[in-house]
Amino acid sequence: MSERSIRILLAVSLALNIFVLGAAAGAGYMWRTQGAQRDGAGDQRGLRFAAAGLSPEQRKAFRQTLADARRQSAADIEAGRTGREQVARLIEAQPIDAAAVNETLASVRQADMALRGRLEQAIVSFATGLTPADRARLVDGLRGRSNMLRRAGEK
Q: Which is a Pfam family this sequence falls into (predicted)?
């Protein structure tokens, strides 16, 4: 083997090693960030995470309260879902029937508001059984996770 071919082989080996090290570093970074999300340190914006500052028993009771409210609102949830599907079909239709779209949107809005009202009532009922300190933690959790307290406390 000539000196030139050895240098080319070493350069290719060096480039390959750098590529493998970069891939390993990237995989480690992804594993670490996804692990944090799996451990609960990730983005928790859902309403069920509003009770994160409460005790485990209280969190379980809060999730159960939300589940009960959703179960009671099953008809409204289904009406909203089918209404949104109908709105999509009506908008795609040629020509668009604006009156039908607006009428369907009104029924979807009504179903969504009924669900929202039931959830808000459930949250208030749950909060009545908490101590003032626990209610304050619940309020902190609700900010940004619920329309109920959106923009509350902003200056």
A: Metal_resist
